[in-house]
Amino acid sequence: MEELLRTNDPVLISFLESILDEAGIKHFVADGNMSIMEGSLAMIPRRILVDADQIQKARNLVRDAGLEHELRPARDSC
Prior knowledge:
Layout: E1 2-7, H1 10-22, E2 27-30, H2 32-37, E3 46-50, H3 55-64
Antiparallel strand pairs: 1-3, 2-3
């Protein structure tokens, strides 16, 4: 899995999960439990991970939603 983005914004996470679900893109929100353990101080961002074979499609959806500034830099394909 590859990291699509990371954020502390629960509304953004919910929105992105919705558009990824609608597009049939499997994803996982990592570090959610760490945020709970820290006392919800928003020090540890949650990461949205997407299967490597669907990362480009997911990145395009995020761009289409006007949230390109939230994306993590693309990994080089060496």
